[in-house]
Amino acid sequence: MLWTAILAGSIPAGASGTVSYPVIDGLFKVRSLDVVAEAGAIHALLAGRFAQRPADTLAYVVSRDSGKTWQPPVFVTGPDTTPVLARRGNDARLAVRGQRMVAVWQAQGELPGTGPLHSALSQDGGKTWRSGTNPASGDSTNNQSYPALALDTKGQAHLAWLDDRDEQGDAQGLRYTQSNDGGHHWQPETTLDPKVCTCCWNQLQVLPNRTVAVLYRDTEPHDMRLALRPPESARWRTDGAAVGDFSWHFTGCPHCGGSLAATRTPQGTTLHSLVWTGRETAPGLYYLNSTNAGKTWSAPLRVGDGDSYGGDIAAISATKLALAFTKHTDQGSPVYAMRSRDGGRHWSEPLVLTPPDTEADHPRIVATESGFRVFWTEARPGGGKTWALADFPI
């Protein structure tokens, strides 16, 4: 049965974690955040307002001590370039593979709140950046958003996003392209699904066997789905089961995507997913996994309670997983985290990482050699947002 694995009850109070607020030179308002853990470092792409800059700017920072200290920012966009439009939920994206890095974001266009994707690349570990081309060459509307990005082991960049080039109005199309030169030039795009939800974030991962996977929200019903392209193939597969077959029928957009992680076992690759549904009879956040490349998924396991929202998931190994999410309360929207030490079969009780009156949003979790690190943005007194992080031991 669909609901047999749901956890009953509300989230316990738990114990607050130790939260730190990284200080980046000149940055006083954070609009967008992406984090990547790779080769012993944590890399972050921040969009926001910097002192002496007239508009929102994109900057790269790196920490080599698990987030305790951060090197000075390197600006990806200059003071005279098009202002960055990226915001939480429609974040600028960063992909890292060794010394090669790619950034993709939405920039301000001619009309307010719209604009094209821009790209930039670095081949020296983020010390310098140069502009790439717009990956969406086939969209005459010049309005693309919600990018999802990854680099594979061969240095190829893979990118998915949403645009309404078909002018449907109540839906967008899910597009994909790749770059074989690290993000400088992009191939003609492919439509993975012509009609998807208009404003939910997507996630793209390159699996251990080099299969490309894109997690996105469909339109009818409004459940999450997975598009897969096997290695060395030009054909995409979108005929797998919904990632949580909730049959949620909804008019509008919930502004909530999902999260995906992959682990390797002797039997093959296991996909782990965290998805949200607004289904009236059982709203909330759910964990599922698949051992057959998304053809079928485990019964949904409810994370927290019906007010849990906006989660992310990461894996250190085939057995050690963790997830983070927020919960809407009368006091605020604190951040919680849970861990599994048996590959997702059992999960710890949620641990609250922030004070209950914290107004946090869009948590991200990454796996490092010393444990998990949870990042988020939160409202600060006087307006605007800052970014924060907390350790979450294995």
Automatic annotation (TrEMBL):
SUPFAM superfamilies linked to this entry: Sialidases
Chain spans, region Disordered: 113-144
One Pfam family per UniProt: BNR_2
Comp. bias intervals (Polar residues): 130-144
Domain Sialidase: residue ranges: 55-236
Xref: InterPro entries: Sialidase, Sialidase_sf
Protein name from the UniProt record: BNR repeat-like domain-containing protein
